[in-house]
Each structure stands twice: as structure tokens, then as C-alpha cells.
Amino acid sequence: MIEELKHIWNVCFDDGEAYSDLYFSHAYSPENTLVHTVGGRAVAMLSLLPATLVTPAGERKARYVYAVATLPAFREQGFSQQLATQADVRMRAEGCELAIVVPASEALVGFYRRQGFAPAFFRRTVSFRTDHPDGFVPPEGVPSGDTGSGIQKIVTWREQFFSTAGSFVRWDAGLLSYAIRECRIAGGDAFCFAERDDEGYIIVKCEGDTVTVQETAVSPTLAPRLPAFLRQRYADCKTIIFYLPSHSPLWSGHGLVRPAAMCKWFAPPRVLTDGYFGLLGN
Q1: 3-state secondary structure labels for all residues of the chain
Q2: Which residues constitute the domain of residue 68?
Q3: Residue 280: inside a domain, yes or no?
Q4: pLDDT per position as a tens digit, 128-177
């Protein structure tokens, strides 16, 4: 079955076998995967990754609807709709309070709206050109490990940083490790910083001449020096993009705010314009 699901992934997602190998070795589990078969052959899939929405009022059990795909020859037959319906039944039965999805394209936003999803987890995008040096001295950053004490440090920092800023989605160490390894495939990495009272981490992708900081968890005094660090680390990049919570104090007043995901509530809803999704799905 795994080989059939890998085939669906590789046909439907234009990101290469390295990504599918990573997913099926580090994030896939059969109990979190719904599959539609035709004649005993897997032709459509949907994954439900575990997540927790942490709010000032308490924690809410959630699932991230991920890797939704149907082989081209079997599309327009309602298989994704059937899997979405099965997913709803399962999430309600296990006590989930909300489902989260990141549409892979604008064309899919309408599909998920029809399933009851609405825009949520707004984020701010701030860009810098590398041909305009700012004069800051780069901080000393070291690549983080994605297992053991390395990933646990990021788990701890992530909890401390985002729990003080409002609602956020918590990922376990396994999924954070998966996300970091995914960024490495895209030429990036996770970097940790520790200078006196300034500490934290960033998780980066590098595609072409653009460096995208998928997640930034650093002190406001350290943030202005990050572009200089990234210019030094990625000498060929021309643009640096930071994805931030919409309410982040970093580079306040700058950037474009747009929803980072969509969500559907199975319990009384909460407004999530200020919530932080982050990392997975960016």
C-alpha cells in the first residue's frame, strides 16, 4: 500500500521523490491516512496529522488535513469529497474541535469553503532585498539538530515564544523534525541563536535566489540582524522573506497580511485572525 500511496504523491505533487520518501519515512502512519481504492488499487488519499491549538483559554484538539490527492485519471468522480466526509466523521468521533487545511492553490479555496472551511491563522509577509545592506552585524547562528536535544530545544523555545503571543498550533517533536528535514531538501535548515539575553531560532527554505524564513522565534532585539545573517549564509540569494504571525512585534507595520490556512470547527468556534499556524504547509 505504501508504494501505491507514494505513487499518488509523486504524480500529484510536483516536489520530487525526496519529499515523498521523507514523508513516508518520518510523518506517515496508516492510522492517520484515509485511502480510496478502485479495483483494489489506491487512487486517492488524505492524511490527518495530529495537532493541538493552544489558546489563552485552554487547548483544543485538532487535525491538519494534509496530502489530499487523487490520481489524474480518477478525478472529477467525487473521491476527494468522499474522503473529506469520512475525515469529518472520524474527527468528530475522536473529539476533535477543529480541522485545519492549507489549500495547495487558489483554485482549491472554493472546494474547501464548500466543505465548511473558512480563512484563518492570518500571517504577515515581510520581504528584504539583499542588494540593500542594512549595516547590521550578523548574529552567530548554528544549525540545529532535528533529533534528541536539538529538536527538544526548538520545541521548548517554540512553546515559550508563541504561547506568550496568543493562540498557536503546537506540533509534536516528530512533525517539527519532519518540517526541518523538508526545509533541508529545499536548501535550507534550522538555525539557533544564543547571545546573552538574545536567543531563539529560525527555520529556512532556500529556493532559487529566494530565502524564505518559514518560522521566526527570536527576540525583537535579535530580529533586525537576521537579514545580515542570511545574506552571509546564502550569498547567492536576492530576496529574503519572513513569514510572521499577523500580530508579531517584529518589523511591526511592515508587510502584507493574508490567511495562512483555513479551518473548520466541530465545536463552538473561536475567531482565529490572530492565531499562528506556522511551519507545516507554508
Answers
A1: CHHHHHHHHHHHCCCCHHHHHHHHHHCCCHHHEEEEEECCEEEEEEEEEEEEEEECCEEEEEEEEEEEEECHHHCCCCHHHHHHHHHHHHHHHCCCCEEEECCCCCHHHHHHHHCCCEEEEEEEEEEEECCCCCCCCCCCEEECCCCHHHHHHHHHHHHHHHHCCCCEEECCHHHHHHHHHHHHHCCCEEEEEEECCEEEEEEEEEECCEEEEEEEEECCCCHHHHHHHHHHHCCCCCEEEEEEECCCCCCCCCCEEEEEEEEEECCCCCCCCCCECCCCCC
A2: 2-120+260-265
A3: no
A4: 998 876 778 899 989 988 778 889 999 999 999 998 767 899 999 999 99
